[in-house]
């Protein structure tokens, strides 16, 4: 009986310590949800994403394989919304909300806008739902960008630049507001 009593007391102590631990301040998420946006004339461009950290990992060509679709963030697919048509790489992206995906590679990256913006990762990604694809050349740095970061920069009254940087890689591409 003494052994059973001891087990019950130990279990109670463990349960109480769990309660105390959970009442402490919550841990910061490893991939916090964030966003960036810009107004160019009357065009509103908005990007929502989860921002993973490098955490001493080799990201591109390691954690994320080359030549495979990536949701360009953590958890849910990154999405971009615009209330005006945009022109990128000589092609039109109609006003709307899009999943933003990339295919990283050492020499060039494929930028993808997909109609399915509300999905976990790339679980439901279907190339048939792509509305715009084009290539960009990545820039490699010696400095490490610890957390994935998107920026939208206004470059004129009708144009801007979208950039993404993480680990030692950055990509960017210009756009124009067309209506």
UniProtKB/TrEMBL annotation:
InterPro entries attached here? DUF2911
Q: List the residue ranges of the region (Disordered).
A: 1-34
Bias-annotated ranges (Polar residues): 13-34
Q: Basic and acidic residues: which segments have biased composition?
A: 1-12
Pfam families, alphabetized: DUF2911
Source taxon at top rank: Bacteria
Q: Tell me what this protein is called.
A: DUF2911 domain-containing protein
Task: State the species of origin.
Answer: Gelidibacter salicanalis
């Amino acid at each position: 009986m003494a052994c059973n009593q001891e087990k019950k007391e130990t279990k109670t102590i463990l349960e109480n310590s769990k309660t105390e631990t959970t009442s402490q301040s919550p841990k910061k998420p490893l991939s916090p949800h964030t966003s960036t946006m810009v107004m160019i004339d009357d065009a509103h461009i908005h990007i929502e994403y989860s921002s993973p950290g490098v955490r001493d990992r080799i990201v591109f060509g390691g954690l994320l394989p080359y030549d495979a679709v990536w949701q360009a963030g953590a958890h849910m697919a990154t999405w971009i919304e615009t209330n005006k048509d945009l022109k990128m790489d000589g092609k039109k992206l109609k006003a709307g909300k899009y999943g933003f995906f990339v295919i990283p590679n050492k020499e060039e990256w494929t930028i993808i806008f997909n109609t399915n913006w509300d999905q976990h990762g790339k679980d439901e990604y279907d190339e048939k739902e792509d509305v715009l694809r084009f290539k960009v050349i990545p820039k490699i740095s010696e400095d490490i960008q610890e957390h994935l970061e998107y920026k939208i920069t206004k470059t004129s009254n009708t144009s801007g630049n979208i950039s993404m940087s993480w680990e030692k890689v950055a990509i960017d591409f210009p756009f124009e507001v067309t209506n």
